[in-house]
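dumping this here before i forget
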Amino acid sequence: MAKFYIDMQHNWKICVFFWNRYEKKLPGVDIFVCTADPDIEPPMMVINTVLSVMSYDYPTEKLNVYLSDDAGSQITFYALLEASNFAKYWIPFSKRFKVEPRSPAAYFKSIDSSGYSSDSDQVKELTTIKVQN
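structure:
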C-alpha cells in the first residue's frame, strides 16, 4: 500500500509538471452530459454534474460542456437556467478556494456535517453567494 501511495505521489508531481509546462498546448475538451428522463435522473443531480464538470481545473477557453436532454423536459431546462445564474458565483468560488468535491450538492452537504472552513475569505465569499441567491 505504501508503494502505491509513493507511486501516486510521484505521478501527481509529473502531472503538475506537465500541466505547468504544457498548459497552452492542452487540447480542447468537449464533455457531454446526457439525460433522458427527469423522473429517473432528477434535474438536481444532472445540474450538479454539469456544474461539477464546469468547475474542472482546466483552461476555461478549452472546455465545452453540453447538456443533452432527450426528454426535452421543461423542468430540466428551468433547472439549467437557474444553474446558469448560480454558476456565475459557484465556478469562481470553487476554483479560487480549490473546493473539493466540486459538485455544489456534495460540497454544501460536507459543510453542513463538518461546519464552515476556518478560511475567513472563504466564509465571507460563501455568505455573499448565499445572500445574492
